[in-house]
Amino acid sequence: MSYAQIRGYCDRPNVRPGETLDFFLSSPEAGRCQVNLVRLIHGDRNPAGPGYKEEAVPSAVDGQYAVGTQFTQVGAYVEVPDTAAHLGGASGLSLHLHLWSTTPAKRQGVISRWSEAERRGWALLIEDGHLVLMASDGRQQSRVSLAQPLFPEVWYSVVARIDVTGKTLSLSQVATINSVNSRFGRMVNLDTDGAAVAPLAAAPGNPSVPVLMAGLAETSLVSRPRVVALFNGKLDGPKLYSHALADGEVAALHAGEAGPAPLAHWDFAAGTTRRGIPTDAAQDVSGNGLHGVCINQPDRGMTGWNWDGLEEHFVHCPEQYGALWFHEDSLDDCRWVRSLSFTLPPDLPSGCYALKLAQGDKTDRVPFFVVPPKGTASARIAVVIPTFSYLAYANSQVLLNAAGGQSVMGVLTTLDDLDIELNVTPAWGRSAYDYHVDGRGVQYSTWRRPILNLRPDYRHEFGSVWQFPADLHLIDWLTVKGFAFDVITDHDLQAEGASLLKRYAVVISPSHAEYTSSQMLDAYEEYFATGGRGMYLGANGFYWITSQHPEKPWMIEVRKGETGDQAWRGRPGELFHSTTGERGGLWRMRARAPQKIWGTGYTSHGLDVSAGYHQLPDARDPRVAFIFEGIGPQEVIGDFGLVNEGAAGLELDRIDYSLGTPPNTLLLASSYGHSASAMLVPEDQYFAYPGITGRDNPLVRADIAYATTRQGGAVFSASSMAWCGSLSHANYANNVSRMTENVLRRFAAEGAVDEVA
Amino acid sequence: MPLQNPNGYADKTADFMAFFAEAKRRELRPLVTPALLAEHAEDPRGDQSPHSTALQDVLNYLHALPIDGKSFAYAEVPYQRYKLGLLRGRGNAPTLDDPRVFATEREAVHAVFLQRLVALGLLDAEAAK
Asked: Across-strand partners of A97?
């Protein structure tokens, strides 16, 4: 069974009326496809809810377009054009680098100027766990390999020489283990150093491909080579020399001493500033200008061969952070040829839209978010679409690959065709919840690829609607209730800050705005400090420190660890973001717990069973009577809904004054009745102990909290990812809908709310 | 004798994992009773009432099984038509050759439960029918 079908993506998530958005389409069947603009209202096809809703929006983009199959280069590597063939090696060549291989068993290029098609050039590669040096003029091929196999995740110094005069190829490796840089330490009695020499039949020819690090060029296309045999692991400080070095010089390089002046020396830490190293440049620091460029975003800010463990921030010690970590499944941009451009009508209302693609019996929808014209608001209410979080989850494949996934979810998994397509299509890339092939967590995520779990009706592998389809629960409710609202995105907030929020009387954060930058937190704090009002209708929000790539704003970076609900954990010394220099991990660990802004913060996940909220004494406070209008004092809030039949579910937040919940916060209601699979978050466990589940721990709950802020501002927090899934229950006539409406109407109204001091 | 070949050293954790699996299955086998099967059939998620301790113990083990060969409910047409599949790991399409079709997710999930019990030797195949 083939899961391939027409797919597409656009160049960015947010666009204003009158601006142009580029779309990139690919199909396994060359032909034509029908394109239509649609507005997305409700995606969840759960038969207990209102069902799928979208509206056709006739526009100039509607029509038939040609589509074909587009190629996606997956895998990270460095390309050095070397158009003048300075690095061809015709007169001899030496190279030195440090290498740390994660998957030595597979064939992979380390550094090469080699065409697989022409079988010409030179290449240092790994075959069957051993280093190999090849040279060929296209007719006569020579090779030398080392008898000693590479130990995975052990640093080696490697020197390769092509001696054209002496007609030899030579290769040597020396392990450079210290107490912290490799998988194991110095006490292991390791015999892995080696050297070998072989005859050279002919000087390397000059293939029409660039120098590549971490791969081999398959073809000799003028535009861009197709790269195969991609390397998994770290490379540090590659240097090329214009001749075969003497044995003494080789020994000096292996000993960590400076050698003769190189022809090229790529220092992957060159360009590091206090704001990180947010660039694809791979600088040649030899002075010869043989600079390279990174393709598909290898991991930067990585510990190098000489990292001694005393400094953990690459900004402070770039000389020990000279490594790039390459993965054969990295992706920063599919780089497809543009299929169409769509200039939005100047009067297109703000909202959630998609280009609907139809070819034969296959359909895809490519969502994007239309925000108001620059500097304006078209309503008093804004929904902040959490596009950073959509990116973090983009194309997650946890339940198909992680044995522990079902233990976390507490359910026996249900999967559909989209999940399977993701697992069998490397070109769609991975999410910040997945691991690369070599076991490293995925720390970058890109918008520029088809994001299958961003489709409006996708039921997430976690067993419920999640992220965008879940946020459409709110979009639908606002639409049905007749509220005028704008959508704005994390990307807009990142760019515009508090001035964007201040155009609105109230902003709503929907189901799961988990990934947040410092700029975004600054914006919310400033907004609430100056009279803004917010409704937090989700949970586990504002949790992971997230950076936007300054040069590639369609990408984000996350470093998970050292605590939190972690899909993976950054390695020692690798917790700082390459793109901004910021420390990664939880905002809570940087003194910006979500409680400081929204009153509540992440406390538990419980993905199998949802519950309702029970009213607490503060619910009777006359200053919050407006919140409970039409709701009886004995009513359980939200013991119903599309998400596991309760409004408090999936992930839950609680107040915690020690973490920054404003002292004047009222606790209106809390959920009760969570399952044995609802667990207290790791950062609250300190010691692991029995009794941390929803059956027995009072911290496993969702809190409905309310606080007023400066200048008439206020914050209402529902603190549950499942909240919005209950809005449509009983034809939208229920106490979750009523409470949400009570708060929204009051917050959107003119005039200050009553202060709760 | 110095260490020369990285492939010559097995992860000995596997030895204990095999011991653990055998011991765990021995402990779980008496828990798999008709009443436990009926409890799961009635309420596979535990959203009607909390699962019994016995069922939770069994589920905890079933949830954590390795990926290759792990059964799942395949939503051929979500909310309408389900089958039973077996995961085959990264990059591989799952096996979907079980002919049974289920009208609801709940029925499919219960079939996943029974399949895993049978595969582990905790339930006789005939009893699973």
From this structure: A158
* CA A326/CA A76 separation, integer angstroms: 5
B 75-114: CB under 8 A from A: 75-76, 78-79, 82, 85, 87, 89-94, 96, 105, 108-109, 112-113
Q: For residue B106, what pLDDT band results from cuts at 50, 70 and 90?
A: very high
Q: Do A412 and B2 touch (CB under 8 A)?
A: no
CB A298 within 8 A of CB A76: yes
Q: Using the beta-carbon criterion (under 8 Å), do A413 and B72 form an inter-chain contact?
A: yes
Are A676 and B50 in contact (CB < 8 Å)? yes
DSSP code string of A573-601: T--B-TTT--B-SBGGGGT--THHHHSEE
First to last CA, chain B: 56
Q: What pLDDT is attached to residue A2?
A: 74
Whether the Cβ atoms of residue A355 and residue A35 lie closer than 8 Å to each other: yes
The residue in chain A having the minimum alpha-carbon distance to the alpha carbon of residue B94 is: A420
Provide the pLDDT for residue A225.
78
The structure's pTM equals 0.97
Name which of A187, A414, A457 to mutate to probe chain B: the one with the most chain B Cβ atoms within 10 A of its Cβ.
Answer: A414
If you search the block for the tokens 């510990």, which residue do you land on?
A303
Nearest CA-CA distance, residue B39 and chain A, Å = 15
Token pair for residue A406?
A: 């079902």
Q: With an 8 Å Cβ cutoff, are B51 and A399 in contact?
A: no
Residue A518 DSSP one-character state? H
Query: Coil, strand, or helix at residue A342?
Result: strand
Tokens coding A201: 């039949």
What are the tokens at A519? 């700029």
C-alpha to C-alpha distance for A410 and A345, rounded to whole angstroms: 47
Of B1, B5, B91, the CB nearest to A424: B91
Task: Say if CB A70 and CB A336 are below 8 A apart.
Answer: yes
Distance CA A656, CA A653 (A): 10
Candidates A150, A193, A408, A412: best to mutate against B (most CBs of B within 10 A) is: A412
CA distance A50 to A59: 27
Report the alpha-carbon distance of residue A370 to residue A345 in Å, rounded: 11
Give pLDDT, residue A314.
Answer: 98
Contact A649, A611 (CB under 8 A): yes
State the burial class of residue A657 (Cβ atoms within 10 Å of its Cβ: 0-12, 13-18, 19+): exposed
Dihedral, CA of residue A407, residue A703, residue A511 and residue A579, to nearest 10: -80
Between CA A174 and CA A254 the distance in angstroms is 7
| DSSP track, A349-408 | PSEEEEEEEEETTEEEEEEEEEPPSTT--SSSEEEEE-HHHHHHTTT--HHHH-TTHHHH
Q: pLDDT tens, B75-88? A: 999 999 999 999 99
Q: Give pLDDT, residue A398.
A: 94
In which residue ranges of chain A is pLDDT below 50?
none
CA distance A604 to A679: 5
Q: Is B46 on the interface with A (CB under 8 A)?
A: yes
A400–B47 CB contact, under 8 Å: no
Environment class of residue A47 by beta-carbon count within 10 Å: exposed (0-12), middle (13-18) or buried (19+)? exposed
| β-pair partners for A145 | A132
A216 by DSSP, 3-state: which? Answer: strand
Note the pLDDT of residue A222: 55
ipTM over 0.90? The verdict is yes
| Chain B, nearest residue to A51 by Cα | B79
The answer, for B73 touching chain A at a CB cutoff of 8 Å, is: yes
Q: What is the pLDDT of residue A143?
A: 98
All residues at 6 or more sequence positions from A360 whose CB lies less than 8 Å from its CB, including other chains: A29
